[in-house]
Amino acid sequence: MTTTVVAGNPKPASRTLDAATRLAQGLTGAAPDHVVDVITLGAGLLGWGDPDVTAAVTTVAESDLVVFASPTFKATYTGVLKLFLDQFAGDEGLRDVVSVPLMLGAGPAHAMAPELLLKPVLVELGAVTPAPGLYLLDSTYTTDTGITDYCERWGPALTSRLPAES
Question: What is this structure's pTM?
Answer without folding.
Answer: 0.96
